[in-house]
Every structure is written in C-alpha cells, then in structure tokens.
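Running this now, will post back.
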Amino acid sequence: MTDSEHAIQARIMLAVGSRPDCRIWRNNVGRFQDATGRWVRFGVCNPGGADLLGWRTINGVARFLAIEVKSESGRLTGPQKTFLAAVR
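Update: finished.
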C-alpha cells in the first residue's frame, strides 16, 4: 500500500520546513458558494496550483518553490501541467 498524498505532503513540509533557507506552506485550493449563491475560488492558481508553495534563499536571493505531490498512482491534471509549464 502506498502513502496518501496527504502523508507525503506532511513529510515534505517537515523536511523542507526544517531548513533555515526555506519557507513552505500548503496551497489550499477550492471553492465555496457565498450568501448570494456565487461560486468563489480560493488558493493560488486555482485550479492547477501546486500543493506546496514557498521559497528558498540562495546567496541572498529568494527562489520560488512549487511542489505538486502525487502518490504512486497520481497523475497531473491539465491545469496542473499548465501551472508546471509556467513555473518552469
């Protein structure tokens, strides 16, 4: 049995977050219906944004960090492929 994406994310956040040169957070994405019935999306680049976002400082310069977490059977969606291409 493989680990869930949630369990993998937790381990990545602990490992990356323990580094003094990195900051990382969970990019919670989704949508909700407001009081008027309008759907409101939240999260960075929803849909398609990476699961984990942050930065790493290298020689005093912050570099953007985006990690999309997949289990063994997980596959990128179309919007995730678009986000990955933009980040690259």
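The chain has a mean pLDDT of 93. More later if anyone needs it.
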